[in-house]
Amino acid sequence: MNSYPLFGVRVSTPVLELRAATDDVLDRLSGLVRAGKMHADPSPYDDPISFYEPDPDLRVAKWLRSMWRGRGTVDAEKWRLYFAVMVDDEPIGMQDLCGVHFSTFGTVTSFSWLSSDHRARGYGQEMRTAMLHLAFEGLGAKEATSDAFVDNQGSNAISRNLGYEPDGADWATREGEPALLNRWRLTRSAWEKQRRDDIELHNVDACHAFLPLT
After folding, report:
1. Distance CA 31, CA 54 (A)
2. Among 32, 145, 146, 157, which one is most buried in terms of CB atoms within 10 A?
3. Which helix (H) or strand (E) covers residue 37, if one does?
């Protein structure tokens, strides 16, 4: 889509690609959402994408509306880039990169999900690694934060493996019930110690032109 260059942003690693989630890509991902492949145990957040919606068609509709709203929210306090995780040109999940007062603090956070058919293969850590490379190398981020429920061993392990440091605790709800979160923080200097040289960024200039980074 030439009139919206952010749709051309990609991050590629030897294992997978983060590809901007255009409507065509979302249409391909919708089958996973409709089939409930994004469900996880333990359950994730109560999120506006409404993965808990029992009706499959309504679940897809709410999921799409959430991302369309997110695309339209681009300001200094908050912006979000939506990426499909592609393996051999097959979409297997999503990895989002979110700016949080980025122009002031240089902080990013993230949100992701992976199809139940592709878990426990190392994709979760690889897609987060790709997202961090875009944030730090491509956008000049100063820090990345993450949080996960204390019983989400997979997400907490990824943060630990990638050099995040514990940053306290917080509360959130899932299925309406309160649950405790671990908070994590990764500084630029910590990321630099283990940055990789086999990750490629594509069309990142569009981010500098269309996002409030400074």
Report:
1. 15
2. 146
3. none
Residues 93-112: pLDDT tens digits? 999 999 999 999 999 999 99
Which of 118, 201, 190, 135 has the alpha carbon at shortest distance from 161? 190
Residue 187 lies in a domain: no
Nearest to 202 by CA among 2, 67, 13: 13
Q: What is the CATH number of the domain that holds 82?
A: 3.40.630.30
Per residue in 149-201, pLDDT (tens digit) is: 999 999 999 999 999 999 999 999 888 889 999 999 999 999 999 999 999 99
Q: Which residues pair with residue 185 across a beta bridge? A: 145, 165
77 CB neighbour count, 10 Å cutoff:
12
Q: Which two tokens stand for residue 80?
A: 């979000």
Choose among 26, 46, 24, 42: nearest CA to 34.
Answer: 26
Tens of pLDDT, residue by residue over 39-94, are 877 776 666 677 888 999 999 999 999 999 999 999 999 999 999 999 999 999 99
Residue at 112 is within a domain: yes
Q: Is residue 179 part of a domain?
A: no
Q: 144 near 188, Cβ under 8 Å?
A: no
Using the 8-state DSSP alphabet, how is residue 135 labeled? I
Question: How many folded domains does the chain comprise?
Answer: 1
Q: Domain limits at 46? A: 5-142+198-209
Which residue, chain included where needed, has tokens 């369309």?
68
Report pTM.
Answer: 0.95
How many angstroms separate the first and last alpha carbons of the chain? 25
